[in-house]
Design brief:
The structure is a single chain. By secondary structure, the chain is of the alpha+beta class. It starts with about 35 loop residues before the first strand and ends with a helix. The strands form 2 sheets. A 6-stranded antiparallel sheet has the order 1-7-8-4-3-5. The N terminus is likely disordered.
């Protein structure tokens, strides 16, 4: 839960106003992390968070690689656990702890995640292995999303963004 008492929506389903775990609510509004910000990663692997994100995020975060190693996802801990559960619900209907494949897949997802803290200057450490796997070096784009945010290598983000046609949604 963020410093402001806000939880982040992690479900693909629209928010129904109920107290569903992982949902972001302030009054009756869903709080999303919006916009894209250009930042730099310093020589130690630290990156400043956008001020608007710092206002609603707690100081404890989880950094993980997205499933295709295209970028990093950054969650609050409860949001990360809800995302892991959602992955299993989407693929298998639920997580089954007696299923060896489920156990191995969950282990791998959890092993790829690193707990990080926001320092006094509003920065987080991006783990070396995560940066290397996603080709993040110095210039990054931080993109808000519902329930988490993404950290992209700037060149990869620009290529991905150029290849994404919003007309598909509206045409």
């Amino acid at each position: 839960m963020g410093r402001s008492g806000i939880e982040f929506h992690t479900s693909k389903e629209p928010w129904d106003g109920g107290g569903k775990e992982g949902m972001a609510e302030e009054g009756n509004k869903v709080v999303d992390l919006n916009s894209a910000y250009r930042h730099k990663v310093d020589a130690k692997g630290r990156m400043s968070l956008p001020a608007s994100f710092r206002k609603v995020l707690s100081t404890d975060l989880v950094v993980t690689r997205n499933p295709k190693d295209e970028c990093l996802y950054v969650f609050e801990p409860r949001g990360f656990n809800a995302w892991v559960a959602e992955v299993f619900e989407d693929k298998f209907g639920k997580y089954d702890s007696s299923n060896d494949l489920h156990v191995r897949l969950r282990r791998k997802l959890k092993a790829r995640a690193k707990d990080v803290e926001v320092d006094g200057s509003g920065r987080i450490m991006l783990p070396t292995e995560a940066r290397e796997a996603t080709d993040i070096d110095k210039d990054v784009v931080v993109v808000g999303n519902t329930g988490y945010f993404e950290v992209w290598d700037a060149k990869r983000y620009e290529a991905q963004d150029d290849d994404t046609d919003l007309g598909v949604l509206f045409g």
